[in-house]
Design goal:
The chain is built from 17 helices and 16 strands. The strands form four sheets. An eight-stranded parallel β-barrel has the order 2-3-4-5-6-7-8-9, surrounded by seven helices. β8, α9 and β9 form a beta-alpha-beta unit. The structure holds 3-methyl-2-oxobutanoic acid and zinc ion.
Length: 499
């Protein structure tokens, strides 16, 4: 029988730490339920002591999800562990994930400590967590840069203390695949009692090697992988779930299986991207827009003769279906509801009616409504409670003329208007906006997502605005790209901490 590889998803913890990707509890529950459908074994639902929001999300996800183990992160600190245990109280299967830095850099600069004391703290944390739960995972932060001999001592000690899973993070994404694989092999061969625990990989992508390192770990004995949807995560991200799942599926020579229902990969990817307003790069393996697009003549000719010439994955296996662009102005509520269901979004009647209304308005402007559009519409009520809303926008621009914008805002029910000119339509519109909202704010980043399906497509805009020494993230989506830009700016302003 093949060995089982456990999939530990940390989209809602390591992934959600990305600035601008924060989800509210309702959205986290939606993602968690989708992860359950996808078949992950463990959902890392948050870091409960870090904020009341994280604490509450772990509670609510624990209630909403049945099969996967719910995991909560802690430092090797008793208070963290108490709070995590409390947050996990409703989980059917629960795990506490505790740990401490083990590299010399962490021991010296972060803890001002020494190797022996770190082992003592690690053991104490595992023993303390064991008072609450049977399933305790220990992470040796920065294990990638920890020397193997010392790491083996730490891991042996925590397994003796009761750790059921030992996580070997390449926190800085530094390791080469050969190095990381050798590290796991070393632990397999030198840690007494290693068979009493599962070794887990946790690789970051700073040098673009996260998936390669994860697979090197698996090939050398790791049986749990820590991954995120679309590879999101701090800095360059974490190992992507879809890449590992499809490597295991494609390489029959690797005698390992996962519980992942690969046909749920694409809908899950779209859901996470849409809820987090985090675009997937077009050439991203497995889930990027171009992952299955053959553009060169030679490739197209080969694929038409036999898909196996250039395709190692059948797009249907990852849930990309040919009917993904089927909704038009003539589609009814049932068709919209069905498409949303396929994308993992289940709405109550009232919300569905609202989304359908918006859908018809969009369908008036745009012939075919694609999955991205639907997901944007389904998430559109995030702006519903905003204090500041765009009332109207009119822009004149063109070649050889100065751009002029007039704009109306609704601020808590009161109407404001302003007019401004600029060196382009967005500049003019934002100058008009700033005449009404007179604050010291600076646009730091402005990304317009590529329009992929025609000139009538929805434009999606991501912005970062600096205000009061903080960066705020905003998102806007509209068939009018200028309006989407203003919406994104207003989204930022609505997040300002104003007195
Ligand atoms: O990258 C890392 O080391 C982590 C640990 C907290 C598990 O995310
Ligand atoms: Zn991490």
């Amino acid at each position: 029988m093949s060995d089982r590889l456990f999939i530990f998803d940390t989209t809602l913890r390591d992934g959600e730490q990305v600035p601008g990707c924060q989800l509210n509890t309702v959205e986290k529950i939606q993602v968690a339920k989708q992860l359950e459908l996808l078949g992950v074994d463990v959902i890392e639902a948050g870091f409960p002591i870090s904020s009341p929001g994280d604490f509450n999300s772990v509670i609510e996800i624990s209630k909403a999800v049945t099969w996967p183990t719910i995991c909560a992160l802690t430092r090797a600190v008793q208070k963290d562990i108490d709070v995590a245990a409390d947050a996990l109280k409703y989980a059917k299967h629960k795990r506490i994930h505790t740990g401490i830095g083990t590299s010399d850099e962490h021991i010296k600069y972060k803890f001002n400590s020494n190797r022996e004391e770190i082992i003592e703290r690690a053991v104490a944390a595992v023993k303390y967590a064991k008072r609450y739960v049977d399933d305790v995972e220990f992470y040796a932060e920065d294990a990638g840069r920890t020397d193997n001999e010392y790491l083996a001592r730490v891991i042996e000690a925590v397994i003796k203390a009761g750790a059921t899973v030992v996580n070997i993070p390449d926190t800085t994404g530094y390791c080469l695949p050969s190095e990381y694989g050798a590290k796991i092999k070393y632990l397999m061969e030198h840690v007494d009692g290693i068979h009493n625990a599962v070794i887990s990989t946790h690789c970051h992508n700073d040098l673009g090697m996260a998936t390669a390192n994860t697979m090197a770990g698996v090939l050398n004995g790791a049986r749990q992988v820590e991954v995120t949807i679309n590879g999101i995560g701090e800095r360059a991200g974490n190992t992507s779930l879809e890449e590992v799942a499809m490597i295991i599926k494609c390489h029959k020579d690797i005698d390992i299986e996962t519980n992942i229902n690969t046909q749920k990969i694409y809908p899950t990817s779209r859901m996470v991207s849409s809820l987090m307003n985090m675009p997937v790069q077009p050439n991203k393996a497995i889930v990027g827009r171009n992952a299955f697009a053959h553009s060169s003549g030679i490739h197209q000719d080969g694929v038409l003769k036999n898909v196996q010439t250039y395709e190692i994955i059948d797009p249907h296996d990852v849930g990309i279906d040919d009917n993904s662009i089927v909704l038009t102005a003539r589609s009814g509520r049932a068709a919209l509801k069905n498409r949303l269901h396929i994308l993992g979004v289940n709405l109550d009647q009232e919300k569905l009616d609202k989304v359908y209304e918006d859908f018809l308005k969009l369908a008036d402007k745009k012939k075919d409504i694609n999955d991205d559009d639907i997901l944007v519409l389904a998430g559109a009520d995030r702006t519903q409670n905003h204090r500041i809303k765009l009332d109207y926008l009119q822009v004149t621009s063109g070649v050889g003329v100065h751009s002029v914008a007039s704009l109306g805002l609704d601020i808590s029910g009161e109407k404001f208007e302003a007019c401004a000119s600029g060196n382009g339509p967005v500049d003019a519109a934002i100058k008009a906006l700033k005449k009404i909202i007179d604050r010291q704010m600076v646009l730091k980043e402005f990304t317009i997502q590529a329009i992929s399906k025609g000139s009538d497509d929805m434009g999606k805009v991501h912005m970062q605005v600096e205000y009061d020494n903080r960066i705020y993230y905003g998102f806007g989506a509209n068939t009018d790209i200028i309006a989407a830009s203003v919406e994104a700016y207003i989204d930022c302003i609505n997040k300002f901490k104003l007195d």
